């Protein structure tokens, strides 16, 4: 790679100047809705919630795209990626002027969000032009392009007054397009890209670029940036509203005061880069967090009246902060936040010089998400507490956590330096002499894991595997509970004043299945990339979003349908967890116990549906959370309903499960694999065949669970179905957990064959019961269906490791016995996860099939006949490929052939 010393100063200045101008233009476009959004809201007659989603959409997409744009910059170079990003964003801004409906505006806003991704492109591009001693200053100057937000706030109002909001869009789009073209013509490819092209070295793969994301240190940097940048964006959006409500100033004064904060939090970023180069990024971060802690404490202290009993009687006084002291402290807070932004990104090219795009992309993405998430938290906390300064209290807690984590990490480095004084350690890179990248890798990694070794398994393996299993089970149970809680909420929405049609209700019941299934495809490959411990922790914590969202949304009958659609999609986060959880547990157990372990994990995890359907009807009738949970809805019969508890009840358990996963679970080093290594399953015929069979079993279980409450209420309105619909998922979950041994003993293929035969008969019984109007027959046949889906869930998963143990030696004969075993296990885990993703679409299609059948024929019978035909296809497929004489599993299940032709089965 070309050394930085050989880069001419003129080329460095050119790269930095062009990147800073481009970033300023992009940031001005990214915040365009802060001005034109008001006019769009009035034009469309948007509600506050709809307006909030429209304004937040570019912030969200601008944050998420940073990860991918950073990776592409590393691969293709900043000149090409920056130009393409600016031209595409300019096109999206023009699309705004053509939009006529709210949905079209949202689509255009997604494109406008690309402007926010420009930051990481510039970081990856600029850092390659400077050496470590000058990168901080250079990146600080580049980051000052945040001032583009102030440019929009100052200039756009004048353009809008003269030419309307369309005029602002035209001018901003044209300006960005011109900057994009000039950047392409005037900028040069960075030295590393030029050297790579000359030498013919291939660009780094995605797996190589994403490798550092496993490091705990990267996530610590992300937390820092969540505050210094995410909180900056959040406060910039929140402050005008805060100043108007708290101090009673007009919009003009509030805008100017908020703009002063934006300026201080942007312009001084260049100075922060200089200070990081001179004194060290670590020192600047201490200054940032220390002073921020002081300022946030002052800002978070609410106006309070005091009465002291003095010798001459009560002495009364009050504490409150005036407008101008508030503005001054806010300005000072912005100053130190701007220093912190530069310091965070000073760390990245020093510690990860070959992964600036991927690491910087993740850090930038999480920081940007802070600008999306924090305003929502501010609003929810204000509604909950009624205290305006609660937003600063939240940031105070966030800074305290970040400061403590940073300090403990630094002191740990000092201890590893064997007594070297901390102040004597090199600043850049921080403590380089003692920096050991391996020490920052996620802890609790099992480097030696041999479950098929009987001695290892008995002495050590079984205890570790079972601990991970018993932590995984409650986390998965909560995931299923949150995923399916929407089915219960939807059934009660009409009772508390929400006027949704039957079709809208079925859509709400079906969408968690759609999003959950789609997320499973993504989740399927995450455990080998990030590790089961980290991914279980993050995916469990993500359940807080729908749980809290449901709790707040159902309290207001004016909540738009769009919000409920969004929450329904977020409930799918729970559905995605199953794929990663099953893939993770599959790595821990030997083949002889894998079927039972997966059955326990999945079966008791599936039990979350039944737990939810049993618990929710109870908690929604009680004021479990007191005043903190909100007021109940008074029903027409005089009863009270706290439907918000259907979401709030899971919050404490989610927090406990998240902590338990982080503290108690392990990663398996041998289980790590890139997406490319796992993607081989897409060429395996049996992967797709098992997707069909597992859709017939698990897809039926989760689809019936989602649609059973609403179907029962519609088919038998005289029956209070919510009191006992939990029995169906309970039967299905327990049968899965309790019948894993049946497939291990008799063979998964044979058990699956008879399951589909039984399911065909059970659905025919449901059809007959509906025709006779017999609720008892209807309910009994559905219980049989649920039982059989549980048995089939266990048996189909038992088939997969056996199939791949047979197929991998045939498909990859060059592998020795040990390598063949590892490859079979890796492919089995990936197939288990991927089939669970495809099968989960049953949670969408079965409720939607009910709704479509009812809309077209007035009865769900048409959908049920479709299920019978599908089960017949599954039965024929199982027999033809696996269980007939000559089928793949016939000899194995009859004890006539080993599972793996290269090795005897493990005992």
Automatic annotation (TrEMBL):
A GO cellular component entry from the record: plasma membrane
Membrane topology of the entry: Multi-pass membrane protein
GO terms of biological process kind: nitrate assimilation; nitrite transport
CDD domains per record: MFS_NRT2_like
Chain ranges passing through the membrane: 21-40, 52-73, 80-99, 105-126, 138-163, 169-187, 223-242, 254-272, 284-302, 322-344, 356-380, 386-406, 469-493, 505-523, 535-555, 561-589, 610-635, 647-665, 686-707, 719-739, 751-770, 776-797, 829-850, 862-882
UniProt xrefs under InterPro entries: MFS, MFS_dom, MFS_trans_sf, NO3_transporter
Domain of life: Bacteria
Compartmental location: Cell inner membrane
SUPFAM superfamilies in the record: MFS general substrate transporter (SSF103473)
Pfam families per UniProt: MFS_1
GO molecular function: nitrate transmembrane transporter activity; secondary active transmembrane transporter activity
Keywords: Cell inner membrane, Cell membrane, Membrane, Nitrate assimilation, Transmembrane, Transmembrane helix, Transport
Domain spans labelled Major facilitator superfamily (MFS) profile: 14-414
Protein family (similarity comment): Belongs to the major facilitator superfamily. Nitrate/nitrite porter (TC 2.A.1.8) family.
Protein name: MFS transporter, NNP family, nitrate/nitrite transporter
Native source species: Roseovarius azorensis
